[in-house]
Amino acid sequence: MSRADHMDVAAYALGVLDEHDTERFEEHLATCWACAAELETMVPVVGLLSGIDGETMTALEQTQTDPALLDRTLVAVRAHRRRTRFRQVLATAAAVVVFGGLTGVGFANIVEDSAPPNVVAEPTSGPTGPAVPRSTGPDGPGVGGDKGLPEGKQHDEVDATTGVEATFFVARKDFGTNVNFILAKLPGPRTCRLVVVRDNNTSEVLSTWSVPGGGYGTNTNATKLTLSAATATPTGQIKHFQVQSVDVNGVASPLVTIPID
């Protein structure tokens, strides 16, 4: 960029550049923090001149006044006509001054200080999300007593044949039915699944999971297994839930059945 471009600051501030020179200077201003800083210092002067009425200047132009004074007033009129555009560009100029003089540390501080305080991202959930199995200890959140139970009606069952213990919390929802369940005395290794059986004897697999060799809620591993699932089937149309064991050939056998009254 030529030296002349750096000398156009005053002319630009007062609005005396033609359209072509104005566009050229604004392109230069976007990358030159020195010109931007100089332009910023002219704000008070331009602000004073912008308050002069244009009609008064026209009247003065038609009189035989001091040529120097006439020139100054005409410049003020042009500045008045252009002050809106000047203010928009001045915002860009100020940004160039700030960012041109910042160090990496200073910039990092500005970014950090601009963040809104105490903003914490919260997890979201919905009926369409897959059921995510999770393991908790017997005294974990949502398991018994004063720590609070999952929502829904509680159903407790112990299978007389397998010995598997199940506690189900079944909740009616607009989307169908939500179920949280806890399993214990569940030996492994094995693959299991949860099936919902409807009143019309149709069924649907809601969730599948693997049981490690130590099992859950056993002498080897005292930790009970806590899982969640959902179905579009209304609660009133559910006959029972059933936890099944599935062998390598895909053949399922019941481990515990939970009737829904």
TrEMBL record:
Keywords recorded for this protein, A-Z: Membrane, Transcription, Transcription regulation, Transmembrane, Transmembrane helix
Transmembrane portions of the chain: 89-111
Region named Disordered: 118-155
UniProt keyword Transmembrane, yes or no: yes
This protein's name: RNA polymerase subunit sigma
Species for this entry: Micromonospora thermarum
Lineage: Bacteria, Bacillati, Actinomycetota, Actinomycetes, Micromonosporales
